[in-house]
Design brief:
Length: 434
């Protein structure tokens, strides 16, 4: 049990112990006795971790946040981080180690010790593996963390057996799956209700179509969320891994981009995560509808939506089409509808899993439902189907009055005390996760 658990002191392996044996005969004769290779044996008293999985809006992140905030007092160090952020940090550390000590160094164990020093309880949000580079190091990394007494708690959209499904060299990833199933308790949180989509009063942050009112809509929100007097609108530059990310218009904690300026360029998750450290609100204008021909743009935009949601920032959009058509054209929706009718997934009077009133009405008008969309052949794989569904769910929540007003110090929500309280919570969350 965690309340009785005291993590061991983290001992870093020596650099010498992480180097491969020399193949030179003379080096072998002259060198001193080789440093002992670090052990990855997991302590017998390490409490079992927790692996919670389920569909979008099933409450995984909420439960993990509650767990994190109520850890017993004997847990003196803890870390909560989005899995994508975590792996970005790991690869950065591995790259730095190999640049300094050579590419033949087994840097994973050293990095694992570094990370273990940050917290004896490590909470991941959205554990997934879609990249072969991640797949090849995850087992050694997680085993290294556990060997230093780190308890893992994570959320995911799928059972461990379904991680990295159909991935390159998946057989090499199976030991990681077995490690997760052995050392973590696997808990299914699937629910028929997407709690993020329980109807809430809309805030009006999303505007379509791209008419004359769209520009005034964006400018109004930029002025409201920015600081026009203390920090007049200006350009800004942020560095990510040696590259510059330009912000065309910033004021206070608000940043404004056109869709092409942010998503149309070769930006990545690392760029979006860096922006989240500097801004609390984002105004994105000119968002087009994206068909299968613009799948790369859609994936990039979904990654941005996830970053905004995870940082609890505010999002204002002007879009060419209604939200539910952002990732599917009318023709694609018609094709999906026809396929749904043939398979029986589209039925009369079928509900839409708790989408907000506006979206439900729009979907009803077209005979759509979320199950049909997620099962559509338009999506290239399970991860893409889940990401699409999650993006709609998160946009629905971020469009609520509750989401937008939180932390603004509105009088009916508690005024200055509410604003300062939310700033402390968000500041602590950033320290833990970014």
């Amino acid at each position: 049990m965690l309340k009785d658990y005291h993590a061991p002191t983290v001992v870093h392996p020596s650099i010498e112990s992480l180097k491969p044996p020399s193949k030179s005969f003379f080096s072998a004769l002259l060198r001193r006795r080789r440093a002992k290779k670090p052990s990855t044996q997991i302590p017998f008293n390490l409490p079992k971790g927790l692996y919670m999985y389920g569909d979008v809006g099933s409450g995984k992140t909420m439960l993990m946040d509650m767990f994190y905030d109520t850890l017993p007092s004997n847990v003196t160090s803890k870390t909560r981080v989005h899995f994508h952020n975590f792996m970005q940090d790991v690869h950065k550390r591995l790259h730095a180690m190999k640049m300094e000590h050579g590419s033949d160094l087994d840097a994973i164990q050293y990095v694992a010790a570094d990370l273990a020093e940050r917290g004896s309880v490590l909470c991941f949000d959205e554990f997934q593996c879609t990249d072969v580079a991640d797949a090849m190091i995850l087992r050694s990394l997680l085993e290294g963390l556990m060997s230093h007494g780190v308890v893992l708690v994570t959320t995911s959209n799928r059972h461990p057996d379904d991680l990295y499904k159909n991935g390159i060299q998946r057989a090499s990833f199976i030991p990681c799956i077995n490690l997760l199933k052995t050392r973590l308790r696997v808990l299914n949180l699937d629910s028929m209700t997407d709690y993020r989509k329980i109807p809430r009063p809309p805030s009006g942050v999303f505007h379509h179509p791209l008419d004359r009112a769209a520009s005034s809509h964006a400018e109004k929100w930029f002025r409201f969320l920015g600081d026009m007097e203390g920090d007049p609108p200006h350009t800004a530059t942020h560095q990510v891994w040696g590259r510059n990310v330009e912000v065309p218009k910033a004021s206070g904690k608000a940043a404004m981009f056109t869709f092409d300026e942010l998503i149309g360029k070769a930006t990545s998750a690392a760029d979006y995560l860096e922006l989240m450290k500097s801004y609390d609100a984002f105004i994105i204008t000119g968002v087009p509808g994206m068909t299968h021909r613009e799948r790369d743009l859609a994936r990039r935009f979904i990654t941005f939506i996830d970053a905004v949601y995870e940082s609890r920032a505010k999002l204002v959009l002007t879009t060419a089409v209604p939200l539910f058509q952002l990732f599917m054209s009318s023709a694609e929706i018609d094709d999906a509808l026809e396929g749904g009718r043939k398979t029986g997934s589209v039925k009369d009077a079928e509900d839409h899993e708790g989408v907000d009133d506006v979206m439900r009405q729009l979907m009803d008008d077209m005979g759509m439902n979320m199950k049909m969309l997620k099962n559509s052949s338009l999506f290239s794989g399970d991860e893409e189907r889940f990401a699409f569904s999650r993006a709609l769910s998160r946009l629905s929540e971020m469009g609520s009055q509750e989401w937008v007003e939180r932390g603004l110090g509105m009088e009916h929500r508690g005024g200055l005390d509410e604003k300062e309280g939310w700033q402390r919570v968000r500041s602590r969350w950033r320290e833990d996760s970014l």
